[in-house]
Amino acid sequence: MPLSELTPDELTDLHARLTKDYDDLVARGLKLDLTRGKPASAQLDLSNELLTLPGEGEFRAADGTDCRNYGGLTGLPEIREIFAELLNVPVAQLLAGDNSSLSIMHDTLVWCLLKGPVGGSPWAGSPVKFICPVPGYDRHFALCEQYGIEMIPVPLGDHGPDLDAVRDLLADPSVKGMWVVPTYANPTGAVYDEAVARELVGMTAAAPDFRIFWDNAYAVHHLTDAESPALDVLGMAAEAGNPDRVFVFASTSKITFAGAGVSFFGGSPATIAWYQQHQSKRSIGPDKVNHLRHVRYLKDADGVRALMARHRALIAPKFAQVDAILTERLGGYDTATWTHPIGGYFISLDVADGTASRVVALAKAAGIAMTGAGAAFPYGKDPRDRNIRIAPTFPSPDDVAGAIEGLTTCVLLAATEQALAALPAPAAG
Amino acid sequence: MPLSELTPDELTDLHARLTKDYDDLVARGLKLDLTRGKPASAQLDLSNELLTLPGEGEFRAADGTDCRNYGGLTGLPEIREIFAELLNVPVAQLLAGDNSSLSIMHDTLVWCLLKGPVGGSPWAGSPVKFICPVPGYDRHFALCEQYGIEMIPVPLGDHGPDLDAVRDLLADPSVKGMWVVPTYANPTGAVYDEAVARELVGMTAAAPDFRIFWDNAYAVHHLTDAESPALDVLGMAAEAGNPDRVFVFASTSKITFAGAGVSFFGGSPATIAWYQQHQSKRSIGPDKVNHLRHVRYLKDADGVRALMARHRALIAPKFAQVDAILTERLGGYDTATWTHPIGGYFISLDVADGTASRVVALAKAAGIAMTGAGAAFPYGKDPRDRNIRIAPTFPSPDDVAGAIEGLTTCVLLAATEQALAALPAPAAG
After folding, report:
1. Where are the membrane-spanning stretches (chains A, B) (predicted)?
2. A258 in contact with B at a CB cutoff of 8 Å?
3. CB neighbours of B421 closer than 8 A, spacing ≥ 6?
């Protein structure tokens, strides 16, 4: 029964019931946190072998390199080989770094600003704009905001962004970049398909140094048997005559240890040379012992796949639980929609327009911490104030259930508040 | 017998003998490398416990933090405590990072350029100059060159740079920075004394956002019992009314594993807040498992001191050997001088003016790789072409001896070549 079909009296009754539900919720004194896409302890436990690796007397790479000493800017060849296969990037075009791919995105952006990308001059000093499919990843947007890059939102569908909108924007030579999370996008779970990818790498861009920041953070993070393989985006870009257009990023943060994994950077041969030239000024080399540790633990691409299956076994039930509760509690009301991701770390919930901030505030007052409303939009501004990101991986299954049940109460309460406020004022008595 | 006192015939004889020595040297087909300040295998072996740490099931910090997961921008408190004591920096003003302090220097410089330091506007877009005590560290200079920062050399003495020269330069508002390696400076071994440090932090600077990049890379790297303790440079700067003037850098690269250690950044409370604001855009946190690994291994500041004593036992003999060979082979000629460091990683050798490039080329042709002549000067240009950096730690004692013996032949050969060329031309026959 959609809220819009309720009579004023029915709406008033529903509001009263929800207010009581909400008061009961607050009285429970919950302390639940669904804010960040963090792995749960049980997921981290899967990789506890890393805590004693590479092992006694083990410090030599396959080529004899002493991993303990300085050097090796590319990262260990054997860890690059494993992820070259998984990311569908030639190993010569994939570098391994320290624990954070966000850091590589930052540095790449900074070098574009101060030095200019391959074939371009420094971006700093002139207006720079980035295309931002929305909803998207708040940390991408924070990087742009930090460096004064104007963000232009473009709607993201199930298989990629609105390509006509992207095409129009690329006519502006100050549009220098675009954020893409191609696989199981944060937060909607969208999967860019091959046709979309080919369009993006092939489109005419007024800026010859236009770059796609291709953050394949969830490349192997499947939640179902319908596994979306990584696209050969660098090959497509080369075929399209724009070999340098794409920067590829990835990491093991949500594969092994979130804070102590290995990051990766991929690009055209020219981009890899460019990156190394700049990186060589910044560092004498990444932590190769951590690379070796990961090689000894993961062994090969199949080792990663087997590990991801164990992650899936732990987190897919949490996603199913969220979906079941949302369906049960919200399904009857036509007031909210949500995504049904087949991979990644998030569910994107759209509540009644204009109520997301209220929902998050209500939840917070009831001890349920959600990512701030609007976080998935540039400048934190959701123009329809309707989107809420749900990150179900970190809490226990019981906590996820408790939080989502509580959240649905908040969603309905905010919607009925809004519907009541929209009723015509009663005739004067 | 100084070369200048030799008769032309004696000089010709000496040159002939040295040429023969050099030919013998080339014939030996050496392959020795004294280029970089890298720890030897035996030094890295001292810390092999790290290869199995933090240990089975060990991932909790003292405060209960799960080091495997995201977060913790400051770095683990317990590793900060250990190095706060050793670096003489309050723990609240010391952050722990990933494996490279050079990276922290890079990022700090980049944020000054793009965002401006505390109390300053962005440096990029206007001329920026840095004071560079010489000889100095080539990677510092490479950072400046990379970002178009003009470097102004100032002579470095045994206890710090020429302060009058520094004072004069600070009258220029475009002088925004200065590199300092305060303890056992690379490559001379100079130790900045307290009076010099007080002058540097207190001097009037035309640029209110002038910054000293205080790279205390060798704070605990003593070679004798005359240990130079780290100065409380942040306290001195605060007392002098310039609390934000100093950025402190350090790492365990030459304490534990050169490529897999922990880096540190120190500054005023305002600087630490500034750094964290910027770093929070770049990363969700450093590798805390590596911090925990180091805490379990090093235990406390005394653990570091004990480890450094074992390093000293391995490398002090190499330094003594270099000094002995230089004394034996060059002592009689008045053509070269060298430093007698009481800590750090280098010996700085000054050969006859105008011959350093020739010496390095001769050595290279004989299979002895030395750091390029001029490397210790901005833009790689030693105005007197006389300075050569000797890095004796990495090769075996036999290799160090072989390399330095060979080097002395090159030093004398180049000097006699020069002296012969300077003789008046013989009267026409």
Report:
1. none
2. yes
3. none
Closest CA to A79 of A300, A391, A352: A300
Yes or no, beta carbons of B55 and A52 under 8 Å apart: yes
Cα dihedral A213, B261, B98, B132 in deg (nearest 10) = -100
Q: How far is CA B31 from the centre of its chain?
A: 25
In this structure, the dihedral spanned by the alpha carbons of residues B315, B319, B325 and B331, taken in order and rounded to 10 degrees, is -170
> Which of these, B105, B356, B80, lies nearest to B217 by C-alpha position?
B105
Q: Cβ separation of B38 and A124 shorter than 8 Å?
A: no
Which residues numbered 113-142 in A keep a CB inside 8 Å of some CB on B?
A: 113-115, 124-125, 139, 142
Torsional class of A346: left (φ above 0), alpha (ψ -120 to 50), beta (otherwise) = beta
Is there a contact between B55 and A51 if contact means CB atoms under 8 Å apart? yes
* Cβ(B344)–Cβ(B218) below 8 Å: yes
Alpha-carbon distance of B249 to B271, in angstroms, equals: 13
CB B145 within 8 A of CB B152: no
Q: Provide the residue-wise pLDDT of chain A in tens; the chain has 429 residues.
A: 788 899 999 999 999 999 999 999 999 999 998 988 899 999 999 999 999 999 999 999 999 999 999 999 999 999 999 999 999 999 999 999 999 999 999 999 999 999 999 999 999 999 999 999 999 999 999 999 999 999 999 999 999 999 999 999 999 999 999 999 999 999 999 999 999 999 999 999 999 999 999 999 999 999 999 999 999 999 999 999 999 999 999 999 999 999 999 999 999 999 999 999 999 999 999 999 999 999 999 999 999 999 999 999 999 999 999 999 999 999 999 899 999 999 999 999 999 999 999 999 999 999 999 999 999 999 999 999 999 999 999 999 999 999 999 999 999 999 999 999 998 876 654
The Cα–Cα gap between B89 and B233 comes to 8
Q: Which CATH class is domain A3-43+305-421?
A: alpha beta
* Bond into A54 cis (ω within 30): yes
Burial grade of B258 (CB within 10 A; 0-12, 13-18, 19 or more): buried
Buried b / exposed e across B133-145, counting CB within 10 Å, b at 16+? bbbbbbbbbbbbb
Euclidean distance between CA atoms A185 and A343, whole angstroms: 9
What are the structural domain ranges in chain A?
3-43+305-421, 61-299
* Chain A residues in contact with B106 (beta carbon < 8 A): 281-283
Tokens representing A4 are 């819009």
Which of B124, B259, B285 has the CB atom closest to A71's CB atom?
B259
Helix (H) or strand (E) holding B327: helix B301-330
The ipTM estimated for the assembled molecules is 0.97
Distance separating alpha carbons of residues A104 and A264, to the nearest angstrom: 8
Residues of A in contact with B142 (CB under 8 A): 281
Whether the CB-CB separation of B43 and B393 falls below 8 Å is answered with yes
A94, A80 Cβ separation under 8 angstroms? yes
- DSSP lists the bridge partners of residue B347 as B390
Give A89-113 as a 3 state SS string: CCHHHEEECCCCHHHHHHHHHHHHH
User: What dotted CATH number matches A61-299?
Assistant: 3.40.640.10
Contact A259 B39 (CB under 8 A): no
Measured distance CA(B339)–CA(B68) in Å, rounded: 45
